[in-house]
Structure formats: C-alpha cells, structure tokens
C-alpha cells in the first residue's frame, strides 16, 4: 500500500486515460485504486450525458434554427440553443443525436454543452445502382466507452426511385437487400468507408412495401448497448451491429406497417428500446411497448395502454399563464433572468402533485375538443414520455400512471424532436 501511495501521481495519470466505464471497473481492483480514482476525481460522472436537460426540436416546414424546451433551473445551462455559433450555409437543421452530440445537415457534428463543432469530410459517391437512394442518417456515440463517434448513412427508398435509369432494383426486390451497402464515418480514422451489412433472418419487405412519404422527421434511430435500432419506411425496425457487420429485422408490435390513423415512434428509455403507438382515430389512445430479448429472439412487450384524453381533460388549459410551467422555450441565448435564476437540482419533476391517470377515468363529451395529441419523445433514463396538446407539454410517467404539466410550447407545428443529455467532456473534435 505504501508503494502504491508513493506512485499515486503516476497511477492517476495512467488511469485518467481510461474511458469512464473502464475507470469505474478499475475502482473494484483494490482499496488503493479506489482511493486514487476518488481522491483525484478521475470519474467525473457529472460531465457525462446521464441527465436530461430538455428537448431540442425543429419546427415543421420552417427554416428557423433549432429550439430547446428545457428546465431553466438546471445546474449546467446551454448558452445558445439556436446553435448560432455554428458556421453552416445550409442552416442548423438537426438530423440526429446521440448522448449529447447533435448531427446537422451537411455532416456537422456539434456539442452544444461545450460549443464545439466540426464539419466532416464529404462522403464518397455511392456504388453503381445506388446513386438515387436517399439516406437515413445515424450518429453513434458513447463517451463512457470511447471519445470517438461514428456516423452512418443508410440507403432508404426515395420517391420515383424505380423511374431512375441507374437503379438496379424492381418493386419485387427485397429491401433492405441481403447484403446492405452502407457508408460509415469514424472520428477515429477521420474518413468514410463502404461497408456491407449481412442480413440475419427475413427481409423487412420489398421496395414496393417501403413508403417514401413515411414521415422522415419522425422516423428515429436509437443506440442501445452497442446496437443501432432504425425505424424503417414500413414500420419495421432494423437492428444494426457494426462490430460483426450484420443487421436483422424486427417487426413492429402489430406485426405490419401502421395504418394511416396510427403513428409509431421509436425511442430509448430506462430499460432499453421502446416504441409508442398513437391512435389518431381514437383521441388520446396510445400504447407503449418495450423490446425484450430472450434466447436470441426479440419480442415486444406491452408496458402501457390507455386513453390519454381523461388526464388531459383534467388540466385547466385556458386558465393557465403561458409562462407558467416547469420548463420554458429557449430560442437562442439564455436571457439574464434565466442565467441568474437559482439552481434547483430536484426541480425536474413534481409527480407527487401530478394528475393520477386511472384506467377507469372517462371523458365527457364536452372535453373531447382538446386538439391533437402529439408524441414528442421518451425520457432516456426514466419511464416517461413527453406529449403535446393544446400548445402545452406534459410528461407522462407510464410506470406510475401520473401526468405532470411542464408548460407551454408556443409553436405552430413541431417537426423532429430529440432528447438532449449534455456531455461536458472536451477534446472530442481534434480536427476542428
């Protein structure tokens, strides 16, 4: 132990180069190592994307910069939610996110917490016969494992694809194909490369089954335990594993593509990969499903199914001050009043005073004119979903069946939505 203490500085320097997850494991080696990790504050979990700050979103059919709907009283605050410091002629449209990083149009990666950003090199042209496909774009980043990130370009069916002279596909062609050609950028090598993913199991469908009009802004990708889950154009889910270069198809909870009156939303929450089904033909009807795996087989398990109208009807929507609520809309730089507000780390939820949603609740006919119910996002670490109706946002704890009003979101139409978990670790963008 004395020898260890004499060389504590050297060991701390070595351990400081470990990824957080490996560093956490090293604490269990012996008491001496645990003391060094703790005394030198090497494991800074407060810098990792382990808490929800708010929700980034784009307005639908609107060229405005991103906006952030967030708790103004959190310990760490984002100075410029509109990402005005990013130099991009194409604007700051958010395409995807992962663990505190945002991916913008034109292949820009941004860390809003540290205000770092970088433009990736342009990807090479696609292989012959694939030129007219458009891309689903995925960002993969886990700072507890590595400071590096990957960006995936996944070909998806575009409108008029079969009319293009260069296409090698027909309506009956399986999609995605048995060997799925994708492009992957790695920040480790700082270059793009072509990869071919080998399919395990059945195809998602055919080219004809894919809906090129499927709401692109609400088809999300989720990163969970080394795999990427992508919402396909026929409402099946692709699970991609880059380590072995494979993918497999997971059917939707209904086993088929959703009808026009039903929308599927994919997300990550406390126990893994979830999806929500919103039934527009029954106001307030929703289901929440959890993807489970047993003996190598994936299966959707229903976690919650309820008519949400009863809870929404209990709120006195029109008597509320538009500025009243736990969260506020941040369009650009935080104003001084917000910056100087006292920090309250436990100010995120108040479900003890929230509305209890009981299965036996009924909705009176006078309450039915409540506007549309829109799904926003999953809370990444709690079994909570965010919904919007009558220009207000509510958080629904589907494990406790409780609802909390978060405040007004005064915009016309919400497009893409991304939960934001700040990552305060630096030195990620060496190339900028």
Description:
Helix content is 9%, strand content 36%. About 3% of the residues have low confidence. A hairpin with a 2-residue loop joins β3 and β4. It is globular. It has a domain of 42 residues. It is mostly beta strands and 432 residues long.
Q: Quick summary of this structure?
A:
This protein is mainly β and 432 residues long. It has a domain at 2-43.
Report the portion of residues in β strands.
35-45%
Provide the gyration radius in Å: 23 Å
Contiguous low-pLDDT stretches (5 residues minimum) are 335-346
Largest sheet geometry: 8 strands, mixed
N-C termini distance? 43 Å
Number of helices: 6
Mean pLDDT: 81
**Main sheet: which strands, in order across?**
7-8-10-11-16-15-14-13
Task: Write down the overall geometry.
Answer: globular
The helical percent reads under 10%
In total, how many beta strands? Answer: 27
Summing up helix and strand content along with how strands pair, one would put the structural category as mainly beta
Outline the secondary-structure elements.
Layout: H1 2-6, H2 8-15, H3 20-26, H4 31-39, E1 54-59, E2 67-70, E3 94-98, E4 101-104, E5 108-111, E6 116-119, E7 134-141, E8 149-156, E9 174-175, E10 179-186, E11 191-200, E12 205-206, E13 221-224, E14 227-231, E15 237-241, E16 246-250, E17 262-269, E18 272-279, E19 285-294, E20 297-307, H5 309-314, E21 328-330, H6 336-339, E22 355-356, E23 374-378, E24 384-389, E25 392-397, E26 402-408, E27 414-420
Parallel strand pairs: 11-16
Antiparallel strand pairs: 1-2, 1-27, 2-21, 3-4, 4-5, 5-6, 7-8, 8-10, 9-12, 10-11, 13-14, 14-15, 15-16, 17-18, 18-19, 19-20, 22-26, 23-24, 24-25, 25-26
Pfam family, one: Beta-prop_AT5G49610-like
Keywords: Signal
Domain F-box: 9-44
